[in-house]
Amino acid sequence: MLTIVKEQLSSLSATPLYLQLADMIRNQIRDGGIRTGEALPSERELSDAVGISRVTVRRAIETLLREGLLSRRHGSGTYIAPRIEQPAALLAGFSADMRNRGLMPGSHWLDRSAGLPTPDEAMTLALSIDQPVLRFARVRMADGEPLAIERAVVPAQFLGSVDDVQDSLYAALDLREARPVRGLQRLQASLATAAEARLLSVPVGAAILRIERRGFLANGMPVEFTRSAYRGDRYDFITEVRELRQEPGRQP
Amino acid sequence: MLTIVKEQLSSLSATPLYLQLADMIRNQIRDGGIRTGEALPSERELSDAVGISRVTVRRAIETLLREGLLSRRHGSGTYIAPRIEQPAALLAGFSADMRNRGLMPGSHWLDRSAGLPTPDEAMTLALSIDQPVLRFARVRMADGEPLAIERAVVPAQFLGSVDDVQDSLYAALDLREARPVRGLQRLQASLATAAEARLLSVPVGAAILRIERRGFLANGMPVEFTRSAYRGDRYDFITEVRELRQEPGRQP
DNA sequence: GCCTTTAACTGGTATCTACCAAATTCCGCG
DNA sequence: CGCGGAATTTGGTAGATACCAGTTAAAGGC
Q: Which entry of A194, A205, B9, B198 is 20 to 30 Å from B133 by CA?
């Protein structure tokens, strides 16, 4: 049973009502107040139980649908979706990714410098070849063991100097309000070169997962171009795919 | 300049108005009627140009925002997002994936049989060990060359018999209205075993991209468990990542 | 001339209302 | 008792309206 407390919603708050309601429902789902498969109260019930309009209730439900927490069936009701594991790769940087997996992130620097873009970097970052970029190359560790080599290139305009990046590139971009909200990643299986093998302490010819990521701002401007090489024996990449049109589902 | 033809919208049509409008705008963007960066007419303008309410216009725009075609700025306007390539892996089966890449899909069967699930198959498909499953194993080809080995397992309840699957597994599932709408994929780099090397005509120890996919219905029921081995030298996997909260973007 | 203020845009949230369409429930007929 | 069909309940779409909140550009004052 879902218990919605009318008094917890405030139209004076800065956050919109529909997000407040969404949070409320999300928390109750997380805290186990409602079992999976169980139905939510109908939109009309919710609406006048909480004293907000049905349209607003629907908006709240829609955000939760998009997160995959609920599923709707026309004519039947709105149900709590079965617990699903979150894909690890939700536009998280390496540090966040590792923490999600319960591992201790670490790194040591290979290179941190300013310079000019190579032709293909200029191309993918939509720069002219005289606009400076910053380069960050690190060996990334998980629980003290080398896991990946990461080489990031960022247009200098988005970061003051290379020293702004201490632990996390994304944290530094966040401060400048230049955190990417969208990314395109390319994954490929390959073999370790001699240099990579040495840095990752694996034999030459070991399996390597190469990930190339481009990060974009909301307006589409590219901010990040990162090429990584992950140890194939220690790392797997989880991703979620959906249909574009998310229509109401069926349920027996 | 965007030209919206009022007469093309019909409230009699089966598809809702907001989707009709979204299609209309989407087509004009694709056909290059409007340049990237350019602003759409304001919601109010659109609204009374087409003769539909602003709420409906907003719904149309929202679906295009989610597809990444538009970006909105509070107080400023709605803009065409810069052209972005579509991620190939949009819950497409192998055949559709290959056609997207401009390659001719093909396959030859290794196995097509009914049986009982192994313990880990039963686990991931949420079956008991006495519920029958169908197995499909194929070598997948692109333009006549072997590209991947694909082994799919589907609970028998979702397909009549193994003969229902001719070319495409997804087409067969579609007919029974059991097409997955959501999938979780796990990618890992690895090396070719002797058996794989023979089937894919690569040397033993070549780079292999292993993809494990679980497909789910809208209600969360698992319908598909597929393990594939792709040639690392011929295949790369493209994926898109987003922030959960998609808020309006900034633009200079 | 420049800077500040103000007014006129823009999208963002929220209301009430009406009706359509899919599922389910209930009831009466055979 | 079983089945079919009507009534009810659920979500889905669409409208008109009001006001709030950022942005931008024009109007005003210095």
A: B198
Bases of chain C with protein Cβ within 7 A: 9-18, 21-24
Kindly report, residue by residue over A163-205, the tens digit of the pLDDT: 878 777 888 887 777 788 778 889 999 999 999 999 999 999 9
Examine the domain organization and report whether B27 and B99 are in the same domain: no
The answer on A103 and A56 residing in a single domain is: no
CATH number of the domain enclosing A63? 1.10.10.10
Domain encompassing residue A70: 6-80
Determine which of A26, A83, A209, A233 to mutate to test the interface with B (most B C-beta atoms within 10 Å).
A209
Mean pLDDT confidence for B228-239: 93
Backbone Cα Rg of chain A: 23
Separation of CA B42 and C1' D26 in angstroms? 20
Q: The domain that contains A110 carries what CATH number?
A: 3.40.1410.10
pLDDT per residue as tens digits for the range B40-65: 999 999 998 999 999 999 999 999 98
Q: How many C-beta atoms surround the C-beta of residue A149 within 10 A? A: 22
Number of domains in chain B: 2
Minimal C-alpha gap between A166 and chain B (Å):
23
Distance CA A48, CA B66 (A): 30
Nucleotide in closest CA–C1' contact with B73: C11
Cβ B98 to strand D below 7 Å: no
In a domain, B199, yes or no: yes
CB-nearest to B190 from A186, A207, A216 is A207
Q: Which of B210, B218, B247 sits opposite A71 (nearest CB)?
A: B218
CB atoms within 10 A of CB B62: 16
Is B247 within the bounds of a domain? no
